[in-house]
Amino acid sequence: RVKLEKTSPQDLSITGVISDIEFNGVLIKYKVDLSNSESIHIIEKNDGLSRHIIEEKVTMYINPRDIMQF
């Protein structure tokens, strides 16, 4: 699971820029563009508190145990 907040000391990080935001009731979906022309979609619970904006640079985090390699 990719997150916008660090929750573990083992979390790996990557930075990107928010290019799109979708509000869907209790969920917010962010599209984050990476420097290599790829993008990551992050879905978070809409808590009504922390909001990000388009063109904001963000750091995303993922725990190595959550990575599935094929």
UniProtKB/TrEMBL annotation:
Transport-associated OB type domain residues: 2-68
Record-linked InterPro entries: Transp-assoc_OB_typ2
UniProt KW keywords: Translocase
The keyword Translocase is assigned to this record: yes
Membrane in keyword set: no
TM regions (residue ranges): none
One term of GO molecular function: transmembrane transporter activity
GO annotation, cellular component aspect: ATP-binding cassette (ABC) transporter complex
Protein name: TOBE domain-containing protein
Protein's organism: Streptococcus pneumoniae
Lineage: Bacteria, Bacillati, Bacillota, Bacilli, Lactobacillales
